[in-house]
Amino acid sequence: MNKDRKLIIAGNWKMNKTVGEALDLVNGLKRELANVKEIDLVVAPPFTALSEVSKAILDSNIRLGAQNMSEHNFGAYTGEICAAMLKEFSVRYVILGHSERRQFQQESSALIAKKALAAHAASLKPIVCIGELLEERKANQTERVLETQLRGSLAGLSTEQVEETIIAYEPVWAIGTGLTATAEQAQSAHAFIRQTLVGIVGEATAKRVRIQYGGSVKPNNVRELMSLPDVDGALVGGASLEVRSFSEIVKQSI
Ligand code: 13P
Questions:
Q1: Confidence grade of residue 3 (pLDDT, cut at 50, 70, 90)
Q2: Fold for domain 8-253?
């Protein structure tokens, strides 16, 4: 597919896969996707599998992501992991503000902005997630919610940092439900996000920011989604847990 922005497809494994299972999965992906150059490929295993997966993908076209990190850098923060620790495993990307963390860990956009700043300070690329709830969509609040989350989660970032940030639009009602946004809904939300970025960092930079779609992305719907003008990749949950479905998603997007 011919777009100015290179597609980026990432697998968010969430709280799945023991180390052994993670290695099976990533070794299978390496085999299936070895020839893919047109798309940036990322897997985001749980923290416990980062070390082994990192070794397994050395010399491959697959890059490593983490699913979260602390806004702090070392210190008395029990249970937390900081950017410098992720860098030890050659992590390049970090998912921030996933709706599950916004919901279950009460993460606010202000906190996500702090994490994004800490990520950039360590040269990690944040994948900042935003998305509306079903009630908000039904109440015609989608754009208001997206704008508030986007502005809040990018607060304090420089133009250059925003350019190196990936935005993931994940309508919460489409996550893990088998319901996908229609092409019209996805394109309209992505275009709105890009327009909002124009207001934050100006048109030239906004045109370079990659915006992923996430929410029940599957091999049979990814092609249409990736063909949309403002959709620059996918953040895949359930379908990233099997070699066959994730590699098919990638192949369908080329
Ligand atoms: P599903 O693909 O399982 O709907 O999950 C999407 C998601 O939350 C990716 O971050």
A1: confident
A2: TIM Barrel (3.20.20)
